[in-house]
Amino acid sequence: RPTVAAAALKRGNMAAAAVASLRGLVLGPRGAGLPGARSRSLLSGARPGQLPLRTPQAVSLSSKSGPSRGRKVILSALGMLAAGGAGLAVALHSAVSASDLELHPPSYPWSHRGLLSSLDHTSIRRGFQVYKQVCSSCHSMDYVAYRHLVGVCYTEDEAKALAEEVEVQDGPNENGEMFMRPGKLSDYFPKPYPNPEAARAANNGALPPDLSYVVRARHGGEDYVFSLLTGYCEPPTGVSLREGLYFNPYFPGQAIGMAPPIYNEVLEFDDGTPATMSQVAKDVCTFLRWTSEPEHDHRKRMGLKMLMVMGLLLPLVYAMKRHKWSVLKSRKLAYRPPNVCLLSCLNGSSSQGATLGLFRSQLALLAKPLFLWDRGEGAGDGVPAPDRSAPIMEIN
Fold first, then answer.
1. Is residue 259 part of a domain?
2. Relative orientation angle of helices 353-366 and 35-43, to the nearest 10 degrees
3. Which residues pair with 180 in a beta bridge?
4. Does 341 count as an annotated binding residue?
5. Assuming Cys at both sites, which of 55, 58, 151, 164 could form a disulfide with 182, CB separation 3.0 to 4.6 Å?
6. pLDDT in tens, 331-390
7. What is the pTM of this model?
8. Which Gene3D superfamilies does its entry note (predicted)?
9. Residue 233 annotated in ligand binding
10. CA angle at residue 367 from 362 to 373, to 5 degrees?
């Protein structure tokens, strides 16, 4: 402010003149402009009224450099290699699968495969009937008890009646002898053979697998089991099988020791459903899916409840995240180095020590962070020299 500075000089007030001159440099004529922007221009080496200098330090602070050219090339090469490797793996897998003699089962539209679909419990009941009358003569279910049927496909009284139909060995009694008793709900399904050796002897050396988790234990799940049960056919020309083996293209090796277990009208369902081959295979596969995954319906029910709860909590969590982290993520930190020439002039000797010290104090208020040390040279006019070890002002 030239007018205020001139008036102060006429009155002999050197300190007021220095302050007025400094405010004129920072604020510009008639107090226009932003103090922060003018002080940044002054500290970056520009003269009053000019734009800040584009020094290398300022350029590096004003923008964030992206990845280098070499890094981009390396990332692009890695992406191309990953894509090529994935394509090669798919091509090789398809070629190997095409050369196999094993026929892969198709994907059937099971009613329980939907995201919110449950098992068909009437089909589970019919499937248990198929297992009881057809499959239980060779295959065991060591991990399924009669109590597991309660509330799924039978009532408690019906399950008790089913359990009482079998005789279970128990004991010993008071005489130390084993005895037979009617089954209870806590009993597991009876085994067709007492040990694996007896099972092999009765099936031409083949051991019938346990069916408790067979759907989870076979690649393809119920699709494989359904295709295996309905896929028996005559061997093609040129293929000969030894006695006791049957041709099934879905079985590994195409030669299976199990005779075709189901056919049309192999049994009669209690509810009157026609017992076609496909219907019997479908029902027993649904039953085996339940035995392999009895928590199927409960898992989907809990998943639906969790989706509903998470749908209510997600907006609240997002609002809390924005409330806590938006300030930290949007904050920008920059260091503006002071003008070296200006600092050297301010720290030099001068006959007007008091005026120069006041000028440095006012300038330190504008530059953040800026530390000025007085070397104690040129102090005069009755003004004591400041402390040489402490900065004039420190602003954090």
1. yes
2. 120
3. 169
4. no
5. 164
6. 888 887 776 555 555 555 444 555 556 556 655 555 544 444 444 444 444 445 555 454
7. 0.61
8. Cytochrome c-like domain, Cytochrome c1, transmembrane anchor, C-terminal
9. no
10. 70
